[in-house]
Amino acid sequence: xxxxxxxxxxxxxxxxxxxxxxxxxxxxxxxxxxxxxxxxxxxxxxxxxxxxxxxxxxxxxxxxxxxxxxxxxxxxxxxxxxxxxxxxxxxxxxxxxxxxxxxxxxxxxxxxxxxxxxxxxxxxxxxxxxxxxxxxxxxxxxxxxxxxxxxxxxxxxxxxxxxxxxxxxxxxxxxxxxxxxxxxxxxxxxxxxxxxxxxxxxxxxxxxxxxxxxxxxxxxxxxxxxxxxxxxxxxxxxxxxxxxxxxxxxxxxxxxxxxxxxxxxxxxxxxxxxxxxxxxxxxxxxxxxxxxxxxxxxxxxxxxxxxxxxxxxxxxxxxxxxxx
Length: 324
Ligand SMILES: NC(=O)c1ccc[n+]([C@@H]2O[C@H](COP(=O)([O-])OP(=O)(O)OC[C@H]3O[C@@H](n4cnc5c(N)ncnc54)[C@H](O)[C@@H]3O)[C@@H](O)[C@H]2O)c1
Prior knowledge:
single chain; alpha/beta; Rossmann fold; oxidoreductase
């Protein structure tokens, strides 16, 4: 037996054919786990499984019988199951909430939430019956904690994932079945163009990424490293955690962006400039200049114009945003 951190463990990774899931499957195989990639995309799943030297199974995570078949496959092929990473997820394209269709709503709730329900409904009884510790890792999102506009029901679906994770952690802690969630901030995957409502380019991601304190989006490797820890015995005393990768303060940012866009009633006035840092005052409504609101600090991030190229820091909390 090797020295991998997941040596001897059998893991299902849903949505493992691409994006974060592929990163998770790659890490798990590298750390000695026996992995089953469970994905709706049969060809992509088979190709990744071949590349990694693991197994794949055509799975629709919204179907109970597919979860039952996955459990049987794990038992027949590997003699059991230890870890489930509920990573498969989807979204509709970023749009005004009043334009979201019934189909959009059903899609995110089925793929993102019902999948967690079904995985626990089918697999928890297995762990209970075998009296063995099990590990559930659910991929939620920072969107479920600090939501952005235009993705109301995706955000709500991820909030449900986070909440269900915490609830089941409390409920099944006594049986040593652990439930944790990883909440990535935006990354560059097959879903990103839908999140931002535009093509997934560095330029179009910039508004999202500018709110991330560590200065970049998340990668499959980031998500995989967090999952590896939570799946490993190093995390045997960790349950009910929503591990955020990485924290930002989006609510403040959007309040400010909205105010900035209102134009004639709200203004930003340059107060002082120190090196590349600029202080702004926000003027709201018809308040006289003497009663201008909070002072904001900004840092020039490009050099084209005052209107579009400042990163704004709100008060002393140092939440930041791009003012475009
Ligand atoms: N990309 C981001 O910025 C971001 C940020 C936070 C959270 N997430 C979450 O990360 C997870 C992975 O998404 P990703 O960004 O890697 O996207 P992705 O589109 O690259 O991967 C999603 C995978 O899930 C599979 N899938 C979709 N519906 C399925 C179903 N019904 N049954 C089985 N498989 C299905 C797809 O075939 C695909 O392989 C999702 O839960 C997503 O919500 C993504």
